[in-house]
Amino acid sequence: MTGSNLCLPKVAVFGTSTVSRIIVNVLQQEGFQIEAIWGQTPEEAEFLSRELNIPYFTSRVDDVLLRKEVDLIVILCTPALHSQIAVKALGIGKHVIVQSPSGLNQDETLRMVQAAQYYPKLCSFLSNGLRFLPAVTKMKSAIQSGFIGARINLVDVRLNMGSIIGKKYSWLCDDVMGGGVLNVFGAHIIDLIHFLTEQSVTRVHGTVRTFTKTTKYIHGIRQIKSDDFVSFQMEMSGGTFASVTLSSQVCGFVQEFHVSGDEGRLIVRNGDLFGHQQDTSDEDIILFQDVSQCSSGLEDPLLPSIYLNGLSTMFSSLADLFRATAVDESNNAKFRSPSSDSKAKFATFNDAQHIQAVIEAIRTSSKERCWTKVTEKSEEEILMMLSENTF
Amino acid sequence: MTGSNLCLPKVAVFGTSTVSRIIVNVLQQEGFQIEAIWGQTPEEAEFLSRELNIPYFTSRVDDVLLRKEVDLIVILCTPALHSQIAVKALGIGKHVIVQSPSGLNQDETLRMVQAAQYYPKLCSFLSNGLRFLPAVTKMKSAIQSGFIGARINLVDVRLNMGSIIGKKYSWLCDDVMGGGVLNVFGAHIIDLIHFLTEQSVTRVHGTVRTFTKTTKYIHGIRQIKSDDFVSFQMEMSGGTFASVTLSSQVCGFVQEFHVSGDEGRLIVRNGDLFGHQQDTSDEDIILFQDVSQCSSGLEDPLLPSIYLNGLSTMFSSLADLFRATAVDESNNAKFRSPSSDSKAKFATFNDAQHIQAVIEAIRTSSKERCWTKVTEKSEEEILMMLSENTF
User: Fold this and answer.
1) Contact (Cβ atoms closer than 8 angstroms) between residue B101 and residue B80
2) pLDDT at residue B391, as a whole number
3) What is the distance, to the nearest Å, from the Cα of residue A198 to the centroid of all Cα atoms in its chain?
4) What is the mean pLDDT of chain B?
5) What is the pLDDT of residue B291?
6) How far apart are the CA of B3 and the nearest CA of chain A, in angstroms?
7) Predicted confidence (pLDDT) per residue in B51-61, tens digit
8) What are the DSSP calls for B71-111, one per residue?
9) What is the pLDDT of residues A99-133, one digit of tens each?
10) Which one, A293, A300, B184, B302, has the greatest CB density within 10 A?
11) Taking a C-beta distance cutoff of 8 angstroms, is the pair B67, B34 a contact?
12) Percent of chain B topping pLDDT 90
C-alpha cells in the first residue's frame, strides 16, 4: 500500500457473487484495503475471504457494521437488504456505496435518503459507474459546450444483451426482489439520462414483459417472474423526450445512447463517442475511442465491460475524493466529508429515490396501459399509507 | 429484349424522383420495357424520358392510363395521387404496383381495395420489397420450421437513419401528404411484421414526434411537419408483442429486426440473418450473409440498399409470375392473372389497408396518449362518415 492510500477508508463488502469478486478486485486496484466480507452463509463468506485475502468474514450484518476499522461499506448483495444495511451503516457513521437497484421500493429508498440527510458528512452514493465512463464525461462536456444546440430534444437508448438470469434461482428471477432488466439496467439508464439532461422525469409510458419464464436450469415450480424486455418513453422536466428499449433476448452486450438537439447529435456506442453537427459532414465522426482493457478475468452479464470501466473510474474518483479530503484536513478527524463540489458527479440516494419513482411509474403504466405521472413519495405520504394499512 | 421478356407487360411509371429513376433501372434490368413516364410537370417528365430512353412522356394522368400498349402501372409519385391513379388504372384493366405509403388515409386505401376486388385477375400489389429480401425469406422459413419454437413472443425492430427530407420542400415534409418516417418506413415495417408473424395488429401505443422542424434548406414560412422519430408498440392477434423504434436522427442506415420465441431468436441485421437457439452456443451464428451489390449508381435515403435489393427481387418475382402465366396460357388473352398461389408473397391492397389502419391508430394513440384499437374501416362506415359530414 502506498502512502497516499493510507488515508483511504478501510472497506467491508456485502455480497459474494461474481460481481462482488470483480468489484473487490477493482477496489484493491484503486488502493482500497478490504477488511471484511459478508455472505448470506458463513461458507460463502469464508470461501471468498480466503480467495481474496480478506481478513474477516461473517454472515451477520451487525458484526460487519460494528467493526471499528471499517469506514466504507460497499453493498452488493441481494437488493432486499440494501436499504436496511445502508441506513444502519450511515447511523454508525460509515460511508456507504450501494449497487443499483438501491432498494425494493420508494419506501426503502426514502429511508436511505433520510439517513443520508441526517449524516451529510458521510458519502452515500450509488455505484452508478456509467456517469464516470470517459465517453459519457466527454458527451456531457460536448452537450454543455453546445455541440448539439441549446437544448436536448431526444434521448434514444437501446440495450441488447443476453439473459441476466444465472443457473440458480435467485433474486434476479423476481422483479419484486429487485430482478429484471428494468431494475438492473433500467436504473442505470434512467440515472444516466437524468445526469446528462439535468432534468427529472415527469411522465412515463412503458411496457414491461417477461417472455422467458423457464430455462434449462430454472423450471418446475419456480418460474422466472422478472422482466426480460422493457420499452419505455419518458417526458422530462425540461422538455426532452426519452425513449428506451432494454432487451435481454440476444447474445453479447450492445448499448447505444443517442442524444440529439437542433444542431447536432451525440452517440455513445458502448464505450465510444460519436458526434455529428447539422450541415457539416454526412458521417458521424468519432470523438472518443475507448481503448481501455479493464478486465479482471471474471465475467458477469450484470457487469458488461463498459459498466466495469465506469465503476473502476468511479472508485478511482472516490479514492481521489478521500485523498483530497485527507490533505485538506489538519484537525484530528481522520476522515471528513469531501466537499460538496467534488461529490457532484456521484449518484446520490436522492437520485436513487427518483430512479425508483420512475421505475414504479413505468410498472404502473405497463399494468394500467396509460401514461403515468412520476410521483416521488414524501415521508408523510409513506407514514399515511402505513397507518391506513394498519387500521 | 430476350424472347422470354416478350411476355412481360409494358410499363408506365408515375414519378420522376431519384427513387423513380432507380426503380426504372431495376425494371429495365428485370426485362421490363418502360413505355411511358408521367411527371408533375411536362419538363420533369421530358427530362427523365430523354435520360432513361422512355418513348412517351406526359404530365396528364389519363394520357398514360389510356395508352393501349401499357399493361402495368408503377406508381411512385406523391402519395396524394396513389389511390386515384391505382383505382383508375385497375378500372381500365391495367396491373398496378403502388409504392408505400399506399394512400393518405383509409378512405383512399379502401377504394383501392374495392377496385382490386372488382378486378381480381389483375395484379394489384404494393412495392414492399422487404418481403422478398433473401434474409427475410430465410427468416420466415426458419420461423416456420420451428427454429425459435412454436410461437413468436417478441418482434423488436429498430431503424436508425439520416434525414429523409430533401433539399426542396415536398410531400416528405408533411405527414398529411404521406411524409415522415412512420408513413415511409413504418409502413414497410408494419407490413413485414404482419408478413412474418402471419398475425394482424389489434392494439397499438405510439409516440410520434417531429424534432427537426427546419433545416438549412427548409425554413421561413414553411416548416417540416412530418415525424422524424416514432416509437410504437403493437399487440398482435396471435399474442405476439412488437416494439418498433424509427429514428432519422443519425447518419447512414441501420435496420435491426429481432424475432424471438421460447426456443430461440432470429435477427435480420440489414441484409444478414443471425440466429440463436436456447442452450446451444453463447453466440449468435450467422445463417445468411448478404453479398449482393445491388447498386444503380444513384442513391436516395428513401431507398436504402436492403430496400433496393428487396425491390429488385420483388420485380424479378413479378416478371417470373408474368412469364409463368404466359406459358400457362394457351388462349387468346395476352396477359391473364397469375395464379393466387404464386401471388401469396406480394403485399396486396388489403395489406395496405391494414397498414394504413395501424398507422392511423398509432397517430391517434400519440395524440390521445393511450393504447388504441386498430380499426379497419368498412365501406359502409366511410359512406356514413361522408354523409354525416355533408348534412
Assistant:
1) no
2) 46
3) 17
4) 90
5) 82
6) 45
7) 999 999 999 99
8) EEEEE-S-HHHHHHHHHHHHHTT-EEEEPSS--SSHHHHHH
9) 999 889 999 999 999 999 999 999 999 999 999 99
10) B184
11) no
12) 75
pTM of this structure: 0.92
Q: In this predicted structure, what is the pLDDT of residue B249?
A: 84
Q: Which domains does chain B have, with CATH numbers?
A: 3-130+301-347 (3.40.50.720), 139-288 (3.30.360.10)
**B143-195 residue pLDDT tens:** 999 999 999 999 999 999 988 988 889 999 999 999 999 999 999 999 999 99
DSSP per-residue letters across B188-227: HHHHHHHHHH---EEEEEEEEE------SSS-TT----S-
Give the whole-angstrom CA distance, residue A123 versus residue A94. 8
* Average pLDDT score over residue span A267-288: 86
SS3 content of chain A, % helix, strand, coil (to 5): 40, 25, 35
Q: B15 or A327: which carries more pLDDT confidence?
A: B15
Pairing of strands A10-14, A34-38: parallel
C-alpha distance from B282 to closest chain A C-alpha (Å): 7
Find the length of chain A.
391
Question: Which amino acid type is present at position A35?
Answer: E
CA distance linking residue A339 with residue B25, whole number of Å: 68
How many CB contacts within 8 angstroms connect chain A with chain B? Answer: 101
**Spatial separation of the C-alpha atoms in residues A95 and A332, rounded to whole Å:** 18
Query: C-alpha grid cell for residue B139?
Result: 427468416
Contact of B260 with chain A, judged by CB distance below 8 Å, is answered with yes
Q: What is the ipTM score, two decimals?
A: 0.90
Tell me whether residues B233 and A162 touch, CB distance under 8 A.
no
Query: Are B38 and B24 contacting, i.e. CB atoms less than 8 angstroms apart?
Result: no
Q: For residues B292 and B310, what is the distance between their CA atoms, to the nearest angstrom? A: 11
Give me the torsion for CA of A364, A370, A375, A377, rounded to 10°. Answer: -30
DSSP letters spanning A21-46: HHHHHHHHHTTPPEEEEE-SSHHHHH
**Do B312 and B32 form a contact (C-beta atoms < 8 A)?**
no
Question: Which triple of cell numbers denotes residue B61?
Answer: 394522368
Gyration radius of chain A's alpha carbons:
21
